[in-house]
Specification:
The protein has seven helices and 15 strands. The chain is an alpha+beta fold.
């Protein structure tokens, strides 16, 4: 695999980062993931904007002399002969002696990494992916709108889900409000109404969530961005989990109890069909 690191195209095993990189020492950096289908990205402009927003919020300046991340991404696919991929971008504050405060920006160059991970090709006949989930206490920091590489709470909860024989953990605040999952946004259904946590900074502004909301509204569903409790989560007719690599999936079991009779429900099936049509049109795939 060829990766991009600080202006160089390198075999993965030759891409080296100094031990004092602040991403390694402090998780002082941000990231983004873009899905490509047959060389075509989904919502590239939105991903670029969200990446820039994260960089601005943590006060990291992307190097002016490097190509834009969308250009790097397309060349990565060419270098790896990978038309279908999830491209991971990571930008850290760079290499500096280990001190908590920011190092001088004029002498510290950010580290820029991009990796293309192969993904399945578009399949118009693909069914909705069924997932099993558990609930876990929300232990993440208060700035989840920043796509930070500091993901230890997510890692711990994701492993708790695996230990329970599940695929995902849905996070619940101390006051009983559901936020999102470790790597996916959560949408519940009550009749023809879809409900998802509002963008108050405590969840990621998921781009696939945006697409799902738009598709649902175009289909005539009512979409509400509002707080909902874990009790409403457990009584929901359907629970959808959406994300860049997940697309639109269906939670069919929560805390060892079936959801939607233990199979993807009609709204999940409908929205996934609409999502596939959106991908086919946007990315010119069949």
């Amino acid at each position: 695999m060829i990766v991009y690191l600080n202006g160089q195209w390198l075999p993965q095993d030759q891409a080296m980062i100094p031990i004092e990189d602040r991403g390694f020492m402090f998780a002082d950096g941000v990231y983004e993931v873009v899905r490509f289908y047959n060389h075509h990205p989904i919502a590239m402009d939105d991903h670029l904007h969200r990446m820039q927003t994260s960089l601005d919020r943590v006060r990291i300046q992307y190097p002016d002399d490097l190509p834009p991340l969308d250009v790097i991404s397309r060349k990565l696919l060419e270098h790896n002969d990978t038309p279908d991929a999830s491209v991971y971008w990571q930008v850290t504050r760079g290499v500096a002696p280990r001190k908590h405060k920011f190092p001088p920006a004029e002498t510290t160059r950010p580290t820029v990494l991009a990796v293309a991970y192969p993904q399945h090709a578009f399949d118009a006949a693909a069914p909705v992916t069924p997932l099993k989930a558990i609930t876990r206490p929300e232990i993440r920091w208060a700035y989840c709108a920043i796509k930070s590489i500091s993901l230890l709470p997510n890692v711990l909860d994701a492993q708790a889900a695996v230990d329970a024989g599940c695929d995902e953990a849905i996070l619940v605040r101390e006051d009983g409000i559901v936020t999102e999952a470790t790597a996916r946004s959560v949408i519940i259904t009550e009749g023809k109404t879809l409900l998802t946590h509002p963008l108050d900074g405590r969840i990621l502004d998921s781009i696939t969530r945006r697409i799902a909301i738009q598709l649902a509204q175009e289909a005539g569903y009512i979409v509400r961005e509002d707080y909902f409790s874990v009790d409403r989560l457990r009584s929901a007719e359907e629970i959808l989990a959406v994300g860049t690599t997940t697309e639109i999936a269906s939670i069919i079991e929560l805390d060892s109890k079936p959801v939607s009779h233990g199979k993807p429900g009609p709204i999940a099936v409908d929205l996934f069909e609409r999502f596939k049509q959106h991908v086919a049109k946007t990315c010119n795939v069949k």
